[in-house]
């Protein structure tokens, strides 16, 4: 679904830029349906929703133990599909005041991890086809995928538990279940109707030149395995 995004570049300016829904941004348009069927495992992502997803933003913020951001590239750069049509990923920051388990990693207070899925045909993810942790923040620190847009949402413990379960259950990548599908469906599992992605024609987003700093090692799979891609 294509749309227009109002990007808050700063407090003083607002610009509009073309934007494609995260659910479609990495879809390989030059592949036939037959090719997609052969390449896909024909299994949809197993997403569970937070039982109290409808809590308002103020309630979530007051009870927040973490912060979730969803990023989507707005320009050229590395893609998690064989075509360079964009990339989406999640960043989760620990706000709990102590070490927290996020996606199977012990994350210190105030630190973040990124989570996304990648195809093994891409050089940076050649070790594994599926879930990658901190690969996107490493790419950002190396100057890749810096032109992106993002929205953020505070997570209560019940929401963080839901996000962790969905990440654990979706260690896979496919042409029909790619990085954008992964990121948007996990986001939507804890977002209220008005803040869901892929279900409206326009969104108000924040524009970033970078994603998260590279706080920790890169891992793949679940349980996480330390990657050789840590140089």
Task: Write out key terms for the chains shown.
231 residues; alpha+beta; 10-stranded mixed beta sheet; two-stranded antiparallel ribbon; 19% helix; disordered N terminus
Structural class assignment: alpha+beta
Give the amount of beta strand, in percent.
25-35%
Q: Low-confidence spans: pLDDT under 50, at least 5 residues?
A: 1-33, 199-210
Q: What's the average pLDDT?
A: 74
Rg is 17 Å
Q: Number of helical runs?
A: 5
Shape designation: globular
- Report the strand count: 12
Instruction: Calculate the terminal CA-CA distance, rounded to whole Å.
Output: 38 Å
Spatial ordering of strands, largest sheet: 2-1-10-9-3-4-7-8-11-12
Tell me about the largest β-sheet. 10 strands, mixed
The proportion of residues forming helix, as a percent range, comes to: 10-25%
Order of helices and strands: EEHHEEEEEEHEHHEEE
Q: Can you summarize this structure?
A:
With about 230 residues, the protein is α+β, with helices and mostly antiparallel strands. The protein has helices spanning about 35-40, 55-60, 135-140, 155-170, 180-190; strands at about 1-10, 15-20, 65-75, 90-95, 100, 105, 110-120, 130-135, 150-155, 200-210, 220, 225.
Molecular structure report:
The strands form 2 sheets. Strands 2-1-10-9-3-4-7-8-11-12 form a 10-stranded mixed beta sheet, sandwiched between helices. The protein has a two-stranded antiparallel sheet with strand order 5-6. Helices cover 19% and strands 28% of the residues. It is α+β, with helices and mostly antiparallel strands and 231 residues long. The longest helix is centred in the last third of the chain and has 13 residues, at 157-169. It contains 5 helices and 12 strands. The chain has helices at 33-39, 57-62, 135-141, 157-169, 179-188, and strands at 2-8, 15-20, 66-73, 88-94, 100-102, 105-107, 112-118, 130-133, 148-155, 202-208, 219-220, 225-226. The termini are far apart.
């Amino acid at each position: 679904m294509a749309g227009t995004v109002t990007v808050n570049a700063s407090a003083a300016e607002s610009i509009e830029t073309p934007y494609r829904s995260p659910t479609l941004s990495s879809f390989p348009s030059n592949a036939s349906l037959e090719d997609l069927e052969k390449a896909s495992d024909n299994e949809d992502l197993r997403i569970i929703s937070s039982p109290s997803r409808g809590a308002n933003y103020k309630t979530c913020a007051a009870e927040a133990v973490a912060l979730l951001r969803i990023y989507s590239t707005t320009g050229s750069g590395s893609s998690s599909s064989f075509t360079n049509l964009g990339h989406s990923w999640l960043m989760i920051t620990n706000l709990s005041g102590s070490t927290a388990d996020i996606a199977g990693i012990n994350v210190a207070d105030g630190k973040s991890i990124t989570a996304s899925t990648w195809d093994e045909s891409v050089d940076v993810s050649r070790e594994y086809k599926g879930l990658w942790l901190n690969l996107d923040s490493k790419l950002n620190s190396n100057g890749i995928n810096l032109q992106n847009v993002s929205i953020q949402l505070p997570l209560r413990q019940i929401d963080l538990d839901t996000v962790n379960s969905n990440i654990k259950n979706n260690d896979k990548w496919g042409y029909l279940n790619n990085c954008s599908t992964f990121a948007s469906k996990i986001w939507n599992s804890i977002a209220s109707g008005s803040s869901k992605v892929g279900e409206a024609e326009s969104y108000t987003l924040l524009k970033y030149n970078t994603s998260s700093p590279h706080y920790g090692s890169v891992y793949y799979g679940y349980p996480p395995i330390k990657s050789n891609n840590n140089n």
